[in-house]
Each structure stands twice: as structure tokens, then as C-alpha cells.
Amino acid sequence: MSSIVSVVWCLYDCALRTGDAFTQGAFHEKSEKLYNFFLCYIIFVNSDYRQMGLLGGNCNNPHAYQRVSSHLEGPAKERDIYQYGIDVRFGGNGSARNFLPNKMTHILFIPYDAEDYKFILKPEDDCMYRFEEIVWHGFGLGRSKWETFFWSSDGEKHQRKERIPKTIVSRFDELMNKSSIDEKKRGQYNAEAKAWGIQRIVSLADEFKEAAPVRSYIEQLKREHKHPEMRFGREVIFFEDELRKLVDCE
User: Could you tell me the pTM of the whole model?
Assistant: First the structure.
């Protein structure tokens, strides 16, 4: 567990160095070593682990367990994605400790692409093992949904969440509406953008060769966001070679 905490702090330090620090948000990584590191920890603390999830249901271990979340809902519907919770606990099943950045106690780990070793890592306030922890986690989720609905808080500077900001979806839909694209495709692309984020919008560049405003907006997104080809929203993205340079391993 000490190594898990240290790696998350290392990622946060890298985010500070690149000007991507956040109070609430997620890391989106493409790294074979880190992918296997977190997955191996889950295997280590769970004797009944199997390749496609944990046997026996949701929570059979106070340190790491399979869980559900509201994150990556689009990809989760299209793929068999298993999500895991890792609690910061030391020994037995003691209380979770707020040793992560911004005094977080829990890590949501979503290994959604085993072929390219891509995963989401999201520090969170509350664990999901004990009943009272699940209740507090639910309150936090409700507050986040409420803020997003009224203020589109995913776009605030201190928040680097993986959900695509409403402003991007709205602008993309507005420009499509002004183009010659038919209504059916517009609805399809709009739904895909909400599910797969910025990466889906930039992948559609060739579909809008004759629609200059849409094409121009897509090029703008490419300029404004690092790694747009794998980006969902405003999450912090690092590739393995970038992390090596940031932590002076080369």
C-alpha cells in the first residue's frame, strides 16, 4: 500500500510540474508498467481474482475490490470493462487513511484497454467497502452531479475530470447543425461524443471535409488538448516515456 500511495503522489507531482494539478480529477495513463503495477496489487490482495474480474461479487476485501461507478459509462456499455476500488488501509480492515493528494482515501482504477495498457486512475474522497463509506460516497456523487448539471463544473480550472465538458459537446452540435450533415448522423455523432469524448470528435475530421467550421473546431481541439487522440475530457494524460522524463529516470 505504501508503494500505491507513493505512485499516486508521483503522478500528482508530475501534474504539478506540467501545470495540470487539480483538486478533483483523474489521471488517464498509457503505461504498461503502471497498468500491471495496479492490477498486480489487486491480484495480490485477492486470492480469488480471475482475469475478467473478482469472483464472489463486489467487495470481498477491504483493500481492493471490484466496484461500479458513473465513470466511462459509454465505453463500459460497449466493452466488458471491470472497475476496481483501492482503499488506503494499512493492515487488517482498519479505517481508510487520507494519505493521497487533497486528502483522498480511495482510488478508482479502470483498466479499459488491455491491449494498449490504457487506464483511468481517479483519487476519490470516500471508499466503497463499508456501508457508511458507500453512503458518504453516494452523497459525494449526488453533489457532483448537481454541480455539473447547474454549473458544468467539469470545465473549472481546478477540476480535471474525464467527462467531456458540456461546452465542447454543445459547440460541436451547434456547428454540425449548421453544416449539411443529415439529422441521423448528427444524433449519432453527438451521442458518440458524449460517450467517448474529445477522442471521438477529433477522429471525425475526415467526415467534415466540406464543413469548414466543424473541421476548424476539430483542429482547435487538437491544438488546445494534449493527446486528443485518446482524450475523453479534461483528465491529466501521461504516456510512459513522458513520466520517465518527468521523474528523471532517463
Answer: 0.85
